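Supplementary material to the annual report.
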Amino acid sequence: MNGSLIRVEELTRTFGPGCPRCATVRGERNNHCPHCGTVYALDRVSFDVRPHEVLGVVGESGSGKSTLMKCLNFDQNPTSGRLFLEAYGGGRQDVWAASDQVRRRLRHTVLGMVYQNPADGLKLDFSAMANIAEKLIAAGERRVATMEDRAVELLDHVNIPLARRHEPPARFSGGMQQRVQIAKALSSRPPLLLLDEVTTGLDLSVQAKVLDLIRRLKRELGIGMVLVSHDLGVIRMLADRTLVLLAGRVVEEGLTDQILEDPQHPYTQELVQSLL
Amino acid sequence: MNTLYNFAFFDEGSKKEIRRATLKALSIPGYQVPFASREMPIARGWGTGGLQLTLSLVGHDDVLKVIDQGADESVNAVSIKKLISDTTGIPVTESTSQATLIQSRHRIPEEPLNEGQILVLQVPIPEPLRSIEPKEAVTKRLHAEAEYSGAYLLLFEEIQRYGTLAGGSDHPVTVAGRYVMAPSPIPRFDNPKMHFSRAPILLGAGREKKIYAVPPFTSVVSLAFEDYPFRVESFEGKRCRFCGADGTYLDEIPASDGTAVYQCNDTGYCRSRSEGGA
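Predicted assembly:
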């Protein structure tokens, strides 16, 4: 593993039967085969994330960003590819080949996922406390006092007024819901955080608060993160390294500054040019 | 006895199918076995699951007792008793010890059950994880993987709301160390009676088309947290106003002056004590 937290090799996720002509007729900006109609949401994507590192993933809508996150969080199964986690067998065994139970346990202990839509990551009708406890319960915790202490600590950490901790997130604003989601993702102290478009759909001042929080987590906790966004501003602010996804393929990767200042691939150049 | 019907209302094929599901349920304690729930002359949700179990099991030598929330005389209990005795001709009783087959809704009798008896419970919602996961396909997988954090989450939320494990009834249990099961809406008071019960306990959900069971002498443990142990309802310092019992599940009957009187919820038990000269 060379000290990586997570390594992904040749991740492919297709929707459709596939045909021998797929590989030859598919253009660079086209993620489906015109002959058999198979969609290549992700095509042989490989990367790794080291401890304390934030990996940014940029790309337009439909480039495969969310599918990538869903595969990493075991919400979807990849068509092919291998995933190695430092926390699972020292990174020598493919996690995607493991049983559902193993993956479920890893999801609750090693990963923390923050979805674009809080409704995907939270039970909006349960109290904020219970939402945070859910991940701890799933990770095997059975003492209420421990979970309550941890939930209060985290809610405080993400600036949710403690007086509202027994309220369901359905009554919270979008930004607060997002922060509860982050608190939940952090609850079992995972070494790796998956952030899927966490600021999309929030207004600017709220975005700033959430970004501040993530930056603080990076500084104080030193958690590794995979950060998916279509917003280059967010990537510039948070990511150490960046992958550029186009039609399911990685077209460029490198240090974030390098990619933003000196983009090599025509698509990345377009992307950086279009930055307001 | 109404001879226009087959013995015990059902045709023999139906009884066989239900008994086959019951055997499977007994073999996998706590596991919900799907079965072909029949149309019944009472509406779904009124005890059709329990009734189908009872009808599939009843024989000429059985003695039947039916209770509804502890009462032998409630309308639903009486209708079910009538249907069964009209189509089988077997005697009914209010005495727990004399019955061989006991169908119940929301209570387990106070008098301990023994070998030779079968308890049938009516179940509205057989799935303990249903309130957290609406999809059957998903809950089946959760059971398969013994992933029960959802059940604990519901208890945690209860503690957040009420400061204690105060849920009224249907407190989930782990059966034989494997499946988490809804014990039907019996009060927590009755949960410990399931633990190593001498009589098999069969649970039937007619609307949800599920049968599950606790075989005799099987461990049944109520879910709880390390620092919030499971507790039954407490009636400390209160007694039944009729029979004087103090270790039973009591109904509270409020009076107009703000006070309340208490009486046994299990009417058959209470009457046997009163008539026995207690």
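Chain A has a mean pLDDT of 90.
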